[in-house]
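Section 5: illustrative case.
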């Protein structure tokens, strides 16, 4: 083990995005004694955080720490920052990164905390930020973390990743130290790709688990989807240069376990409502809720297709949420696929002996 006891924490953090996860990470850093400025898009939210120590829309019934400052002024948020976290939904990461660029001091590292892949380009979030803010070290923070539980001080672990030689004092190690508190425990990684693919794919698999739970299937089905989904995640990560070990870590299987088994997950809840027959427009009673997996279903499968990879569970979710296929038809197509090997590296494909019957069963049963 390399002794990195000379590593120093960052002192002044700018957290860009005052939704649930941005506010939670700002809270962790502030509880760790650091100087934290939280950038919010809306004046009323910044005022609420400053004046009442609450963020009632995104983190109801919680009190934020004293000294956590919020602002809508990007220049002010970034003025003295020695590290920056960007915590908005993945769709907005390029725009937000571009907004930060004119105000960023030289050499300040940027950590992206969104879980997604950019539509059209197929780029991972760290790649998007690197394009928009060239010359800065870029890392990611990911893992099994419901924002509300983090703020409520439930012991929570994350992975902080930067690319590079792990024996060096990487920005990831400094950020891990910065965010360490008595209840928040970061681990350090040098595999951004593996961590990012984990975060994007787990959202899609969580929708699949939600759909099947909402449709009335039980734990056997969920365990099958989580496990086979992990296999899809691993193949994509490895194809892009990530490692299997990362996929079996917090940002991979850790986040899959969390998100695929809890109604606290927006992805799972969205799926559960669709599986129970709620129409797309009526999910969450029509409220706008960030469900990254809806976009990820398309971006993950587009990326996989471009690499010649087949991700059958992600394709099933895409068929349902992007292409509006009936759930029964999409699940039947997945479930009645030819018999194959586990792992898929063994090249076996035997036609399903009761393909039509299996298909019919689910087409009749599911919405
Ligand atoms: N909520 C959670 O428990 C966790 C969320 N994440 C990830 O964090 C990212 C952000 O999610 P949440 O904070 O949960 O979302 P949220 O819905 O709670 O908040 C999103 C924030 O981004 C802002 N925003 C949205 N679109 C924007 C745009 N175009 N320009 C500028 N600001 C914009 C909103 O005003 C809001 O402050 C997502 O990628 C999510 O997967 C990761 C771990 C945990
Ligand atoms: O990423 C998350 C937990 O790690 C949050 O999950 P949801 O976006 O599904 O709510």
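Designed sequence:
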């Amino acid at each position: 083990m390399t002794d990195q006891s000379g590593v120093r924490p960052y002192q002044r953090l700018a957290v860009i995005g005052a939704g649930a996860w941005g506010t939670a990470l700002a809270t962790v850093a502030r509880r760790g004694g650091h100087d934290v400025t939280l950038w919010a898009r809306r004046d009323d939210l910044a005022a609420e955080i400053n004046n009442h120590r609450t963020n009632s829309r995104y983190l109801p019934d919680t009190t934020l720490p004293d000294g956590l400052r919020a602002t809508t002024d990007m220049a002010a948020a970034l003025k003295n920052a020695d590290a920056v976290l960007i915590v908005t939904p993945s769709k907005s990461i390029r725009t937000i990164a571009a907004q930060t660029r004119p105000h960023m001091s030289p050499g300040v590292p940027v950590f992206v905390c969104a879980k997604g892949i950019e539509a059209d380009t197929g780029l991972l979030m760290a790649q998007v930020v690197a394009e928009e803010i060239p010359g800065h070290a870029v890392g990611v923070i990911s893992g099994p973390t419901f924002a509300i539980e983090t703020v409520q001080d439930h012991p929570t672990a994350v992975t902080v990743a930067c690319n590079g030689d792990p024996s060096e004092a990487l920005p990831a190690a400094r950020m891990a130290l910065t965010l360490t508190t008595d209840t928040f425990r970061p681990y350090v990684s040098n595999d951004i790709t593996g961590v990012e693919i984990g975060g994007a794919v787990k959202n899609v698999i969580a929708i699949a688990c939600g759909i099947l739970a909402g449709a009335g299937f039980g734990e056997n089905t969920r365990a099958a989807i989580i496990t086979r989904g992990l296999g899809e995640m691993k193949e994509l990560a490895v194809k892009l240069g990530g490692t299997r070990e990362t996929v079996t870590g917090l940002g991979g299987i850790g986040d899959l376990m969390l998100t695929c088994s809890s109604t606290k997950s927006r992805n799972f809840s969205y799926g559960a409502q669709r599986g129970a027959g709620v129409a797309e427009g009526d999910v969450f009673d029509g409220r706008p809720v960030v469900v990254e997996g809806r976009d990820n279903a398309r971006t993950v499968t587009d990326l996989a297709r471009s690499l010649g990879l087949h991700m059958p569970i992600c394709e099933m979710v895409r068929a349902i949420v992007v292409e509006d296929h009936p759930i029964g038809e999409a699940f039947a197509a997945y479930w009645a696929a030819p018999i194959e090997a586990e792992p898929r590296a063994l090249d076996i494909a035997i036609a399903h002996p009761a393909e039509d019957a299996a298909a019919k069963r689910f087409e009749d049963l599911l919405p």
